[in-house]
Design brief:
With 331 residues, this protein is an all-alpha fold. The longest helix is centred in the N-terminal third of the chain and has 43 residues. The mean pLDDT is 86. The protein has a single domain, classed as MetI-like (MetI-like fold, Orthogonal Bundle). The radius of gyration is 27 Å and the shape is flat. 76% of the residues lie in helices and 1% in strands. β1 and β2 form a beta hairpin. The protein has 13 helices and 2 strands. Belongs to the binding-protein-dependent transport system permease family. CysTW subfamily. Its main location: membrane. Keywords: Cell inner membrane, Cell membrane, Membrane, Phosphate transport, Transmembrane, Transmembrane helix, Transport. It comes from Pseudolysobacter antarcticus.
């Protein structure tokens, strides 16, 4: 194409009519894009509300029959059609709490090691190993817990806890019981092992976002590694770290298969962490196919709705904490 043709084409493209046509195409494209992403955003909200409403509707018979006693009763008698959600709710919260008490400090240590202490040649392989642990299906953790960790707990850990902590006042009641291996403590530890890769990966990623010049300035002033982490890294990433912790907590609350294998699946309420218990997710997974009456099935669906509510409350608390931290930091 000659230079004269190029000049004529450019002149034609810059005419008012061409500019108006392009502006019209841009406006239509922008409208289509806005519509598509709006539908995607509303899809999440509609799906969430639909799932919650369907579980509430499915569990309406249980809520209508038992009322508020469904939340406080420890009964779970399918033969006589008496159901209460207190034991599964208690087991869900206790196992998740044990898991987070173990997972948060361990994940914090892993993240600090990978970002501040480990040599460069080691950071990549260890980070890859953590991501691989996060990708292992939960049923594998459950099978490992049942065949390997439960016997280890029964033979070594629980007898030691009985002998050394079971006689203590107040907290001794938490560590008394026969060495069955299965129980809320075992389930909490297995949950912690599952949650650690998620929390540590989030912490590692947010720790890497801290500007290097901030840390180097602290080191130049004579700060130790711990002082740099505590005074520079953590304040800079506090909100993201808390968000990662609550993300792990949400996974611990809803975990099903791993807990089902090692929790013992007992509806008897016990103060001891060494005794079998139950959780909401494990109860639904174990008994949904055995529900032989409408009230039995409705009670299990009602448990699902309660798990939804518990998870929603936990995540709402996390959101409020993050908002308060942002306000305190002036953001």
């Amino acid at each position: 194409m000659s230079s004269d043709s190029l000049v004529s084409s450019s002149a034609a493209a810059s005419t008012p009519s061409a500019q108006n046509a392009r502006a019209g195409r841009d406006a239509r494209t922008d409208t289509i894009f806005r519509t598509v992403v709006t539908i995607a955003g509303w899809f999440v909200l509609i799906t969430l509300l639909g799932a919650a409403f369907s579980m509430l509707w499915g569990g309406r018979e249980a809520f209508h029959t038992f009322g508020w006693q469904f939340l406080t009763s420890t009964d779970w008698d399918p033969v006589n059609h008496k159901f209460g959600a207190f034991v599964p709710i208690y087991g869900t919260l206790v196992t998740a709490l044990i898991a987070m008490l173990i997972a948060v400090p361990v994940s914090f240590g892993i993240a600090i090691f990978l970002t501040e202490v480990a040599p460069n040649w080691m950071r990549g392989p260890v980070a890859a190993a953590i991501e691989l642990l996060a990708g292992i299906p939960s049923i594998i953790y459950g099978m490992w817990g049942l065949f390997v960790f439960v016997p280890f707990m029964a033979d070594h850990i629980i007898p030691w806890l009985n002998a050394n902590l079971g006689q203590w006042p107040i907290i001794g009641a938490l560590f008394r019981g026969p060495p069955l291996g299965m129980g809320m403590l075992t389930a909490g530890i297995v949950l912690a092992i599952m949650v650690i890769p998620f929390v540590s990966s989030v912490m590692r990623d947010v720790f890497l976002t801290v500007p290097v010049r901030l840390k180097e300035s602290a080191y130049a002033l004579g700060g130790t590694t711990w002082e740099v982490v505590w005074d520079i890294v953590l304040p800079f990433t506090r909100s993201a770290v808390i968000g990662g912790v609550f993300l792990g907590l949400g996974r611990a609350l809803g975990e099903t298969m791993a807990v089902t294998f090692v929790l013992g699946n007992s509806h008897l309420l016990s103060a001891s962490l060494l005794q079998p218990g139950n959780s909401i997710a494990a109860t639904i997974a174990n008994e949904f196919t055995e529900a032989d009456s409408d009230i039995y099935l409705s009670s299990l669906i009602a448990l699902g709705f309660l798990l939804f509510v518990v998870t929603f409350i936990v995540l709402a608390i996390a959101k409020l904490m993050l908002k308060r931290l942002a306000m305190r930091e002036g953001n």
